[in-house]
Amino acid sequence: MFFTLLIITLVVAALVSFIAVRAFSSAINSILHRLIDDAIAGAWVRYMKFAIFVVGISGGVRVRSLERYILPQEHFDSAGESRDIPPFELTTERWVLEIYRTIIESLQSIAWMLLVFFIVSLGMYIVVRIFEMRRGTNE
Fold it and tell me: Of all helices (H) and strands (E), which one includes residue 105?
């Protein structure tokens, strides 16, 4: 059952990443071709798409969180003594919760990565515009 959950969360995170790549592909493409007026812009677009997949999948598939379904949990009682609790059972409610967490965590990871990308791109756009304006006044 654990392996099925792991595979399902991997597929869901990859699907969420694919949708994000499709949604932001044209924006990333136009930004990078505007900032990098060279053939290397295409390579950067491909890298950004790859990065979205990596960040989305690694953010969505939380292996440490999934370990609680196969490893016993250490619990301390009121006397401070340690005892092991059996691993959590995968019920229907936990399946739904894990898939929901996968979607949310993937989207959150991708959103942070794209926020950083767009902030850096905005800074670079301002620098490019300043150089273009200076070049225009010098000519």
Answer: helix 92-138
User: Can you say how many angstroms the Cα of residue 46 is from the centroid of all Cα atoms in its chain?
Assistant: 16
Range of the domain at 118: 2-138
**Kind and range of the H or E element at 85?**
strand 82-85
pLDDT in tens, 54-68: 999 999 988 777 777
Q: What is the rounded distance in angstroms from the CA atom of residue 60 to the CA atom of residue 75?
A: 27
pLDDT confidence of 27, banded at 50, 70, 90? very high
Estimate to the nearest angstrom the gap between the alpha carbon of 104 and the chain centroid. 10
Give the residue-averaged pLDDT of 3-27: 93
Classify 4 as helix, strand or coil: helix
Domain total for the chain?
1
